[in-house]
Every structure is written in structure tokens, then in C-alpha cells.
Specification:
77 residues; alpha+beta; 4 strands
Length: 77
């Protein structure tokens, strides 16, 4: 198997095992910098059904205007 095929298979596997949650507001107690703008959606993502409540969650922000996605990082406990 070639490296590109292995990357494709890994990407397909990961895309099937990611959970996304679009949040209506920044969760309380979390300071995100740079701040989420009014023209962005905040999206929490988990991989392999990690449980919420322990440890930090990972976030991305998606521009409502042009669809640009930026990694926000780990935030929370």
C-alpha cells in the first residue's frame, strides 16, 4: 500500500469517528482567546466518543460570512 492510500484510509476512519456540536454561546467559565466573534460559530469536537465533563474540550470557530475555519484549541477543565 502507498502512503497516500494509508492517509486516505486514516482520514476516512477519523471522519466517521468525530462528533461535532455547534454551540449557541461560549460555555460558562471558559475564556477563549482570541474571542469568538459575533460572525462565528463555535464548534466543540470530540474524537472516538470521548466523554464530556473531565478535562478540556477542543474547539474550532467557523466564520458565518465566508466559512473560514480556525482552530481555537483546548479549553475548559
Amino acid at each position: 500500500m502507498e502512503k497516500n492510500k494509508a492517509k486516505l484510509l486514516a482520514r476516512q476512519f477519523l471522519s466517521k469517528n468525530i462528533q461535532l456540536e455547534v454551540l449557541s454561546e461560549t460555555p460558562s467559565g471558559i475564556s477563549i482567546y482570541p474571542k469568538i466573534q459575533e460572525n462565528e460559530f463555535l464548534v466543540r469536537f470530540t474524537l472516538f466518543a470521548e466523554t464530556h465533563g473531565f478535562g478540556a474540550d477542543q474547539y474550532v470557530a467557523v466564520s458565518k460570512k465566508d466559512g473560514t475555519v480556525r482552530y481555537v484549541g483546548y479549553h475548559g477543565e
